[in-house]
Specification:
heterodimer; A: mainly beta; 6-stranded mixed sheet; globular; B: 113 residues; mainly beta; 7-stranded mixed sheet; 51% strand
Amino acid sequence: KNEVEQSPQNLTAQEGEFITINCSYSVGISALHWLQQHPGGGIVSLFMLSSGKKKHGRLIATINIQEKHSSLHITASHPRDSAVYICVDGSEKLVFGKGTKLTVNP
Amino acid sequence: NAGVTQTPKFQVLKTGQSMTLQCAQDMNHEYMSWYRQDPGMGLRLIHYSVGAGITDQGEVPNGYNVSRSTTEDFPLRLLSAAPSQTSVYFCASSSGQKNSPLHFGNGTRLTVT
């Protein structure tokens, strides 16, 4: 079973700061998801990537298949980015990290 | 499109009762799955399906049954509820194609007393 580890578990930032959330996994995978869970509980998919880098607005996700590591970056963070960010091994039996709780203060 | 629809949003059961959590999607997705989310544990896969008539167990299948008679629906059945099944349950779907995103329902908060 793949072990998916995220760091940090909790992160507090000031508005405007550059944020990095890390994800490492123990078994090689073909793809990885990044999800965002809002304080109200809803979960949305941010990225699915199998190599390289993807960008959507202020969010950037990278993956290094050889090093079994992915990062999620948020540029110019804003209080509305406050949420739990979850990385997921995108194989058939999805394995989730425990999430990183991000709080961005104004 | 409604996306992924989960019902009910909240449910309280007594130990030993049975119930079915409903999940429906209107995106013609082949892959559907059920998760539970508990504090400090993250989301854990209960059961999943890669198409109509096909189901398989995830990480925590005990106490739950599923079936997939149509592409659209993937109900989760609790046969005899236990307090350990108190949790928030999420259903998700995807097309199953490479690089396709997951679509989640809004969750069901279940309390078993």
